């Protein structure tokens, strides 16, 4: 493509952008914006029509050019940043960050996939196919980092990044598998090559994220959303606890953030809750505040803590002067 052709193409794209910004433009207004003659504007309008864009023209007062509706529009003209930002926003909606928007977000993402140019369609599809969720993602992260990790997941190539550990940032080499959106953050499920084990990493803590050229043979991976949720809610803590709660799974899920506990149904009126904390008393307090009857399943020492705290509460509620 020579310089004249590039100039014409850029001008036509600018014209399309102007038509998308406002309902009606007069010929002289468009000519002034583009720095060309009204005759050149008419030629560029014909080029858009030839590409399939329904540009309508009307005469008289209030007349001009406008982009009309059409059933079969040609590919959308998104640049990379717009496509990535749109896809991430739709994926967050599909993951549940926006109430009652999940199905609509998924439909919109499917439509976006159909009308994007092939190059950007592949990029957005890489992101959508590499994301799981156990709630809606809300913590803002760099969409370019998400796309880099999504491409690495799709292409099955190693990734590298800096990650804080024990007070210092260390380089990590991983085989990336899935991106997971929680109720607050984005995580990457990956196989840590230096630690020879599965790990999840907070995307907002990563620095210098790069997709490497070394391909890997996929291992048998755990369920991404379940693995990350259980790590976030339980395994990172000193103590883990398991309860049988006498309330439905939906009821308890509405009371506990997904990042705070794992809730599993055990019939229509009971559910199992798994959570972790630095103190067993802290976990017990939260279970009491749910307001449902419950039983301690694990660990055994938590039952003793129940007896100790129950006696303490009963003593606090007993009548007596208390020295006053």
TrEMBL record:
Residues 8-63 form the HTH deoR-type domain. Gene3D superfamilies: Winged helix-like DNA-binding domain superfamily/Winged helix DNA-binding domain (1.10.10.10). Keywords: DNA-binding, Transcription, Transcription regulation. One of its GO terms (molecular function) is DNA binding. InterPro entries: CBASS_pafABC_assoc_protein, DeoR_HTH, HTH_11, PafC-like, Tscrpt_reg_HTH_DeoR_CS, WH-like_DNA-bd_sf, WH_DNA-bd_sf, WYL_dom. Pfam families: HTH_11, WYL. SUPFAM superfamilies: Winged helix' DNA-binding domain. It comes from the Bacteria. This is DNA-binding transcriptional regulator YafY. It comes from Amycolatopsis magusensis.
């Amino acid at each position: 493509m020579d310089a004249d052709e590039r100039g014409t193409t850029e001008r036509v794209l600018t014209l399309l952008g102007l038509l998308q910004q406002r309902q009606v433009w007069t010929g002289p207004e468009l000519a002034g914006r583009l720095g060309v003659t009204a005759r050149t504007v008419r030629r560029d309008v014909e080029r858009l029509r030839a590409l399939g864009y329904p540009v309508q023209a009307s005469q008289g007062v209030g007349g001009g050019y406008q982009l009309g509706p059409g059933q079969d529009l040609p590919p959308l003209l998104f640049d990379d940043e717009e496509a990535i930002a749109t896809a991430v926003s739709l994926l967050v909606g599909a993951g549940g960050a926006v109430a009652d928007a999940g199905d609509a977000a998924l439909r919109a993402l499917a439509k976006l996939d159909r009308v994007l140019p092939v190059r950007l369609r592949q990029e957005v599809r890489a992101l959508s196919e590499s994301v799981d969720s156990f709630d809606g993602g809300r913590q803002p992260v760099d969409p370019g980092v998400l796309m880099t990790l999504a491409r690495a997941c799709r292409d099955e190539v190693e990734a590298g990044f800096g990650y804080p550990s024990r007070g210092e940032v260390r380089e990590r080499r991983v085989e990336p598998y899935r991106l997971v959106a929680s109720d607050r953050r984005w995580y990457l499920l990956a196989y840590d090559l230096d630690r020879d084990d599965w790990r999840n990493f907070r995307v907002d803590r990563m620095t210098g994220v790069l997709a490497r050229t070394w391909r890997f043979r996929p291992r048998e991976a755990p369920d991404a959303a379940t693995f990350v949720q259980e790590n976030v809610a339980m395994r990172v803590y000193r103590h883990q606890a398991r309860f049988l709660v006498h309330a439905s799974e939906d009821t308890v899920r509405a009371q506990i953030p997904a990042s705070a506990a794992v809730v599993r149904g055990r019939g229509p009126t009971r559910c199992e809750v798994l959570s972790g904390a630095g103190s067993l008393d802290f976990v017990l307090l939260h279970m009491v505040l749910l307001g449902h009857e419950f039983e301690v399943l694990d660990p055994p020492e938590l039952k003793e803590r129940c007896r100790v705290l129950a006696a303490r509460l009963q003593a606090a509620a007993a009548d007596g002067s208390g020295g006053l």
